[in-house]
Amino acid sequence: MQNLAPIALFVYNRPQHTERTVKFLQQNELAQESRLFVFSDGPKVAADEEKVQEVRRFIKNIDGFKSVEVIERKENMGLANSVIEGVTRLTEAYGQIIVFEDDLISSPYTLTYFNQALNLYRTEEKVMHIGAYMYPLVAQNLPESFFYRAATSWGWATWERAWKHFEPNIDTLMKAFDKPKKTAFSIEHTMNFWRQMRQFKKGKNNSWAIRWYASIFLQGGLTLNPSQSLVNNIGHDGTGVHSGINDIYNVIINPKPIKEFPSLIREDKDAYTAIKTFLQNRKGNMMTRIKRFVKEKLAVYFSK
Predict the structure, then answer these.
(1) For a tag on the chain, would you pick the N or C end, based on fewer CB atoms within 10 A?
(2) pLDDT in the model for residue 140
(3) Whole-number Å distance between alpha carbons of 118 and 97
């Protein structure tokens, strides 16, 4: 396969998660032909210094890729600014990018999926994002991959032509939404996407991902996704800056390569319905929610 996309890996202060993420990436069938760029953010507080240095000692010795370049930040940029700057840099240099954070384990075929899709939809302006994660859907008859409106941030890829539409200004984004668009954006109010926008506006989160999805949505763009996830997030253990302790989104990774890609550039109605159904029911009944709340609180207590 020609024209392989560079991989951007964003790391901070979780050495064990970073090692697992890299280990699984190294096992990808295209790893040895791919360029890896590791963006290491600087410590936010003095207490993070030791872990940041531990991560940096590890990433300086990564092998198993065509090349490895480490970009160390002296100051703390924060994940959002680090991702935006890194993605902009690599898309301008290479025209495309594959993005991982330090808490994702992947299939041996995840890089293959990304590169095949990047090549297949390179000139399709409506296709703006390729996601590797998918919720644990129960629908049995979905195709191996499909188009959908929302962008997942746990392992993804894009092109410079799409990333140029990224709008970082939350006011500009929010002004473009009317009531029907808010409903469509939030998957008929089954997901808190609009709430995330409001929270960003109030300074309660610093999400690059919600602004990226909003940018795609307002362009009428689509995202490609696998029906069975090609990554799993191992960061929901209380160690992440933005991740709590939760097993709702835990998935079994697809062990097989994706061989079917949609030829019609339109949202898959069955996939949309399956995702909406999952989002409506993901938290379970009241007893399930209480048990999960207690479990999460105990996990936080004993992890201290």
Answers:
(1) C
(2) 72
(3) 9
CA–CA distance, 77 with 15 (Å, rounded to integer): 19
| CA 40 – CA 45 distance, rounded (Å) | 15
Please, which residues have CB within 8 angstroms of residue 121's CB and are 6 or more apart in sequence? 127, 130, 224
Structure confidence by residue, pLDDT tens digits, 7-44 = 999 999 999 999 999 999 999 999 999 999 999 999 99
DSSP 64: S
How many CB atoms are closer than 10 A to CB 302? 7
Is the pLDDT score of 161 beyond 90?
yes
In angstroms, the Cα distances linking 188 to 98, 99, 135, 180, 182 are 30, 28, 17, 9, 8
DSSP 161-229: HHHTT----HHHHHHT--HHHHHHHTTTTTS-HHHHHHHHHTTS---HHHHHHHHHHHTT-EEEEESS-
Report, as an integer, the average pLDDT of 50-61: 98
Nearest to 134 by CA among 225, 268, 70: 225
Find the helix or strand (DSSP H, E) in which 121 lies. none
Supply the Cα-derived Rg of the chain in whole angstroms: 19
Strand partners, 159: 96
Query: 163 with 91: CB under 8 angstroms?
Result: yes
**pLDDT tier at 109 (50, 70, 90 boundaries)?**
very high
| pLDDT of 297 strictly over 70 | no
Q: Which two tokens stand for residue 267?
A: 């949202």
Q: What is the pTM of this model?
A: 0.90
Question: What sign results for the dihedral spanned by CA atoms 202, 203, 206, 211?
Answer: positive
Q: Is residue 113 within 8 Å of residue 5, measured between CB atoms?
A: no
In angstroms, the Cα distances linking 151 to 107, 147, 154, 303 are 20, 10, 9, 32
